[in-house]
Write a structure and sequence with these properties.
This protein has about 280 residues and is mainly beta. The strands form 2 sheets. Strands 2-5-7-8-9-10-11-12-15-16-17-18 form a 12-stranded antiparallel beta barrel. The chain has a two-stranded antiparallel sheet with strand order 3-4. It starts with a helix and ends with a strand.
Length: about 280
Amino acid sequence: MKHLRAACALFVASIGIAHCTQAQETQPAKGQTEAAEAAAESSDEKGLSFEGKITFPTAYVFRGYVIEDSNFMVQPEAQINYAIQCGDLTITPHIGAWANLTDLPSPGDPEWFNEIDAILGVDIDLPKGFSLGLVYTWYNSPSNFFDDIHEIGLTLNHDDFLHPGFGIYYELDDDNGTEDTYIELGITPGFDVPQIKALHIDFPMLVGMTPDKYYTDDNGDGTVFGYCSFGIEGVYSLGDHWGLFAGVDYVQLLADSTEASNRGDDHQWVGKAGVQFSF
């Protein structure tokens, strides 16, 4: 029931701000593609926006744990946002879903439906380029590849050249084991390519940590660092609403538990390509 109470609290918080006036002007994040910027301008007038992405990855690595790396995968995701202006703050409740569809063998049916994540959250744009987020996520496997996980997270980001971000996530209920805490630090510097105006390139860098046993050593004891990753991703705008993207990440596995998920190897390459849209 803990996860149900957390979801209800987040929902009530979103409803509680609904009396505020609708956002009339918001600033798009630095480095957005032309498609995202046009969609943001449209959403400023009506408060409502819709965005999504379809990714074809070469491997599925979740917070340093290699879930699969030798099967066909497609990962669709979508999110609905509603921007509300409350004084000097822009508050944006959102609801979305992410899925992993694959030919990896699983114990249940439909076997190809490996994972579906339901996401409920709210983002708050703060003064001086800061943004605060609260998110609740329910991880579910229709094919019974894993048991349900319910998680709540808090994020803090800043809009500058480096785009630094901090996130802390706590498992309210984990049927696969103990409830643990995951902490993530990252930066995402990027730039628009002068010679190709529709092209934007980012260089995401992440490190995953834990204060308990989200990552462990060979003895089952908790270890602080789980992984770090470095990548490059390019997004090419196709107009007002659509874009193509491609990239590659190098993931260095730092914990014994993450290496074990990768058959003992201490690193993994992840390529990805797909299409994104926003309205």
